Amino acid sequence: MPPTITESGRIHLKWALTDGVGPLTFSRMLIQFGDAERGWEASASMLADIKRVGPKSAEQIARSRDAVVIDYEIEAAAEHGVRIICRADEDYPPGLHQIADAPIVLYVKGELLPTDAVAVAVVGTRRCSIYGGEQARRFGELLAGAGFTVVSGLARGIDALAHHGAVEAGGRSIAVMGKGLAEIYPPENQALAEKLLEAGAWISELPMNSEIRRENFPGRNRIIAGMTLGTLVIEAPQRSGALITGRLASEYNREVFAVPGRAQDPGCFGSNDLIRCSYAKLTTCLEDILDELGDVGDQLRPREEQRVDKQLTLEDTAGGASPDDGDSARRPIPKLTEVQRQVLESIPFEPVLQDAVLQACQLPPGEILAAFTTLELKGLIKRLPGQLLVRAGKA
After folding, report:
1. Which of 22, 32, 263, 305 is spaced 20 to 30 Å from 84 by Cα?
2. Residues 340, 306: contact at Cβ < 8 Å?
3. Do the domain assignments include residue 225?
4. Contact yes or no for 203/153 (Cβ under 8 A)
5. Domain for residue 328, yes or no?
6. 84: part of which helix (H) or strand (E)?
7. Rounded to the nearest 10 degrees, how much is the dihedral formed by the CA atoms of 157, 196, 368, 11?
8. pTM of the predicted structure, to 2 decimals
9. How confident is the model over 117-170, as pLDDT tens digits?
């Protein structure tokens, strides 16, 4: 059984519980000092050199840092069967590595799998119509049945029904909470939450006993948007957290989808506006989502509907075979997009850090993440522990 927290996680948790240090400041600190431990040992004057911190804030951070105690938090997590993972841990969601404001730590109950990188979020209003509820359950079933992990917020209405659909289809689903994991909210979703643990997980970035607060939900929504390939909005009024999730997904270079709602229903004004303003693709079926996800969508398309791609040799797709690549260099592989070719060419036959590939490709992080997933599904690359990638097939 994995430990409640790793040694790297302990340092990250200290930073997460330090007043004045949020995800963005923590990311800037990593840029300044290289890792969390060196930052922890830095003086206040050194902390002041972090971008957008300055002397006054640095003094406050140093005082708070020196008073941080993490043992109680770790004990509370262990008592509830919760692990605390950090950005340096292997099972930290890969999609979150690509956003600047990634959570410093995540509290996780259940199991996170590498395949959870192939995920779609389903979000919407708590006060959904019968039609909206039917669509949430329907898309939860369709997405899970196709092989996606369905991510949502376990809230009343659209969220809960999307989770129900995924569970009933026998698929995976992850609930991202806007509070600590010591108790489930809303309480009527306790049974659903327990069901998710059979093939999924609960996630929060908040301390175990954090209560429900309105200001917590935008942060929860960014996690939902960041860890998925796209976000499907089903019924959202003009002022809705679901619209925040959709906006963030767009900022993170992820796909945004919306199910059209009734024209005169205020509960659909926001989601309909997403379609009207071309921020989201009008979505009525699973194929609308698969079409926008390129080769990831093609790999998950029902077999009888999969596109027939022309088989290309490695010489065709990677600009020529290396003399020492052996026969494996000439084996046929599926057709790749230009982005996928560039990403594949940036991954050697020896293990390389994922971050090194991200820097080498000079492409939007969302596109690179999707390419990683497609190349892995096609058997062209492998993910290794420690955020390493390696090209497959060398003789």
Report:
1. 32
2. no
3. yes
4. no
5. yes
6. strand 83-86
7. 110
8. 0.79
9. 999 999 999 999 999 999 999 999 999 999 999 999 999 999 999 999 999 999
